[in-house]
Amino acid sequence: MSAVLSSFLPSLAGGLLIGLSTAMLLLLNGRIAGISGLVAGLARDRGERRLADIAFVIGLLFGPPLFAVATGAWPVMRIEASLPMLAIAGMFVGFGSRLGSGCTSGHGVAGLARLSPRSIVAVGTFIASGMATVALMGTAS
């Protein structure tokens, strides 16, 4: 197998697993896999629905350790921003998620797959905002 192809396999596998988990949550529970909604649901007692939220979030948290066990190495991450910048960015993402009634996972993965007009507009807004941010900050690689 070529080195180029093998470098894309982990991303392909991750994308397939995200799609599979999103489809399973929708088909088996009738719920959209929007991470901001699932995390917000942890603060409310919603019976069995809360247990499903907890299980999904735990699955997200155990992804990197499971990757490390399977491959013998932790996933490579490169974060070049300072901690205060990350905190500010996180607050903007949280605000945007509430304002847009969902996050990139809910709109981008589940919403686009369902051809939701609201999600199409939301994802277009996410992409345009990201492009504008990169252009303004001059951080394109």
What does this structure look like?
This protein is 74% helix and 0% strand. The chain has helices at residues 3-29, 35-41, 48-61, 63-71, 83-99, 104-113, 117-137. Helix 2 packs across helix 3 (48-61) and helix 6 crosses helix 7. The longest helix is centred in the N-terminal third of the chain and has 27 residues, at 3-29. The radius of gyration is 17 Å and the shape is globular.
Structural class: mainly alpha
Q: How many structurally independent domains?
A: 2
In N-to-C order, the SSE pattern is HHHHHHH
Give the DSSP E fraction (strand runs of 2 or more residues).
under 5%
Large-scale geometry: globular
Distance between the termini: 28 Å
Please, what is the average pLDDT?
83
Main beta sheet = none
Amount of helix: over 70%
Number of helices: 7
Low-confidence stretches: none
Strand elements, count: 0
Radius of gyration equals 17 Å
